[in-house]
Amino acid sequence: MVELIKGAATKEREGVEKLFAEASEVLATFQKEVTGFIEEGERSMLGEAEADLRWKEERRAKLAQCKQNLENVPGTDTIYFLQEFQALKVAMEENLSPSLSFQNELNFTKCTQAVSAMKDVLSAACKSQWDRLQGKATDGLNFQEMEEAESRFPDKSNNPACQESRDYFLKFAFIIDLDSDTADKFIQLFGTKGAKRVLCPIPYPESPTRFINCEQVLGVNLMNRGNYYWEVELIDGWVSIGVIAEDFNPQESYNRGRLGRNEKSCCLQWNGQNYVAWFGGFESVIQQPFFHTIGVFLEYSEKALTFYGVKDSKMTCLQQLKVSYLAKGQSDPFQNKINNKFTSLFFCKLKPAFFLESVDAHLQIGPLKKDCVSVLKRR
PANTHER family of this UniProt entry (predicted)? Predict the structure, then answer.
């Protein structure tokens, strides 16, 4: 018996030491990957920022030279003055530098959040297994079962985005401009932020990206990495807000072309009575009061899209579209569709999309810019 005890303890000790070494290697690898991700993001975005700075400095120097030339023209030489004035005008109207990805988000700033979540899971696992070893585990699920259950039913209360006020989301503010080349002829645009359904068709020029069977319009902006947040004011009528794949065919029929009625788009619809989430032709009715302001939070890398009701700087989660497996015996056609097809939507670049369904539909994209500045000042 003594030999048996010693042999079993030695074998167990060796196995534990080996597993701890392997676990340490996993953590070291994860640390190396996260650190590398931060360094790569820093290099990439610094390169963009420095190139943009050089471009702006060259542009400023060119404008300054044109201005100086104009000021040096003799007052009596009208032709020379007009020539120099035209040169300055052309320089001022040159295309601006391309938009920078870091203006929307520094994509490596979620690393702390990811590592913190990993640490919490690890701490919970250690405590759970230690309690089991000591015989203190409570009746019910073991850690593995708890982990599986958590994956089936994600607790949104643990998501920082659900605990924070609106200020949290403004860190990912995405400035959207409506694309007039996509607007259906029964949509009137007000600048780049407002859209209203009208009865008389508007003679827009022909465009291969224009919707012809659905009263829809897209944002010019593309989303393919990081996090994005924008807000929409529901002014009147039935309005749907969502995202759509860049390669979606705008000439699809009405039944297939509407937001959420295909696997290339999804949306939150207000139908005058309640909210409804749509994807792939399946719907999920949401029992929540009406909110004039809807916040949209796209986590591209997480393959998740969440809609919030916004009021007094507080956020109420209306619906999150994300793969989340159901427990055995449960059936939800909408979530099953999400689980089977939603991930494929993120194989494409995405665009903000809007569907003005009723004849009185009217929306306005929320002005986040001033709010973002105020948040930065407070922080």
Answer: B-BOX DOMAIN CONTAINING, TRIPARTITE MOTIF-CONTAINING PROTEIN 47
